[in-house]
Amino acid sequence: MALEQLEPQLVRSITLLSPAAYPYAAHKVPYGQEFQNVLRSGWDVSASPAREVIHSLGVRSLITYFEYDDPPIPRDIQTMYRDCVAINSNVSYHTIPGVEHNFRRPNVAPDARTSSIMMPCERLVGYLLISW
Predict the structure, then answer these.
(1) For residue 113, how many C-alpha atoms fall within 13 Å in the half-sphere facing its CB?
(2) Which residues span the domain enclosing 11?
(3) For 20-78, how does the pLDDT look when each residue is reduced to its tens digit (9 = 90+)?
(4) Domain count for the chain
């Protein structure tokens, strides 16, 4: 996991945009079919190493999801990260309304989708400037 390599003395805050979480077993297999099999095997999200990493960072952390992030990020993973706020005062959680996982807005005609990316980007930037 990339966050495990973070050096807190060099970083004051981080923003995680639609972070995933994986079981310990997924960290030991190459990305591909075997990795997918581990994820589909059914695992306890609360036991993911991601929870421990978030709490041990020692820096301000903003965890952000889009309203329509499910799929690909399942709700139980989003809930695990949201619950980190109650345990760690350095962690903030925010949902950006009206946006899909790929930065696009739902129910927008395909030919207008590229321009629709601007609204979620502007919302994210606005939130980051106000929150941090």
Answers:
(1) 10
(2) 2-131
(3) 899 888 888 998 999 999 988 888 888 788 888 888 888 888 898 888 877 778 889 99
(4) 1
